Amino acid sequence: MFTPSNETVMAIGRLVLASAEYEAALASAVSRVVGKAATVLVVGIPVSQQEQALKVLTERERPEAVEDLAAILRVAKELGQDRAHVVHGFWMFDVHVADEQVPSDIALRPKRWTSDLRGKRFPVEKLVEVTRKFGEIQRQLDAWSAAHWPQEQVVRAPGHGSQTV
């Protein structure tokens, strides 16, 4: 009852790998904006702060690209919430929920600043779907980054203006 199926374990692993690929694409996009020093800047910084930094720099330097980036980041945020539930949740497998015929795999997470737990069902199909969407959003971010921030362009610190290298 408390042992996940191999299919569930594999689906969780694939989701984690796909989210890591998105994080690498995000770091790459930040690198395109600020140059090679970004690798040092983004290590250990939460994804949400990297996304915010990329958005702020894009607003300042490429305002025409903000809308597309914002759409990508909205989807990434939703996926990130599922990822956090999967990775940081306390899992219960084959749980029979009242009035449902099919048992569910459920990840429980505490609600911030409370002792309440939120449960979310993650059947294998949902894990596979979230993983697929992470792959899509990573490819969209890579394409957006390449289109709006060619490799030879970097943004300098505020007050120093943009320079093409």
Put the structure in a nutshell:
Helix content is 59%, strand content 15%. With 165 residues, the protein is an alpha+beta fold. It has one domain.
Structure commentary:
There is one protein chain. The protein has 165 residues and is α+β, with helices and mostly antiparallel strands. The chain has one domain. It is built from five helices and five strands; from the N terminus they run ααααβββαββ. The protein has helices spanning 6-34, 38-42, 47-61, 66-88, 124-148; strands spanning 90-95, 104-110, 117-121, 153-155, 162-164. The strands form two sheets. Strands 1-2-3 form a three-stranded antiparallel β-sheet, with helices on one face. Strands 4-5 form a two-stranded antiparallel sheet. Helix 1 (6-34) runs parallel beside helix 3 (47-61), helix 1 (6-34) packs antiparallel against helix 4 (66-88) and helix 4 (66-88) runs antiparallel to helix 5. The protein starts with 5 loop residues before the first helix and ends with a strand. Residues 154-165 have low confidence and may be disordered.
What fraction strand? Answer: 5-15%
Q: Roughly what percent helix? A: 55-70%
- Terminal Cα separation, in Å? 59 Å
What structural class do the secondary elements suggest? alpha+beta
Q: What global shape is seen?
A: elongated
Instruction: Please count the helical segments.
Output: 5
* Biggest sheet architecture: 3 strands, antiparallel
How many individual domains?
1
Unreliable stretches (pLDDT < 50, length at least 5) are: 154-165
What radius of gyration results from the CA coordinates? 19 Å
